[in-house]
What does this fold into?
Amino acid sequence: MKFLFLSILSALLLSASSISSQVKILETIVTEISLNDKILIWSDDKDILAQLEKNNRFKTTKYCQNATIIILKEKKQFLPECSQAYIFVLNYKLLSEVPQSFGALFWKKGRPNIVILESRIKAQKIKISQNLKPYLEDKVW
It folds into this structure.
């Protein structure tokens, strides 16, 4: 019983730290892009949205229709009426499935990977800082 409790506690702590790490990376990405609009963030991942709300640097919204940036974890949560926003996905496969998305953050072999599609940021008139240039890709691989 004690082992089970410690296993569950460890899993919760690792999950919380991975969400925290993911949010820190997302915060960096959002600050390194330049949009013509004021940034208002929505995500279908409520844990990420809650973490972003704690940070006073960003404004969040409960409704994707009001967002300028959507952080999307699952395609089934994507509503067509929200397609006017800039979309950043949390799964590499979603870059193909959601053609409006301009980039992705995903974990591979225990490490975070960032991909930003150059053709999509140009089409959407998103400017990125020099810090994000190493993550530019020509196409979804």
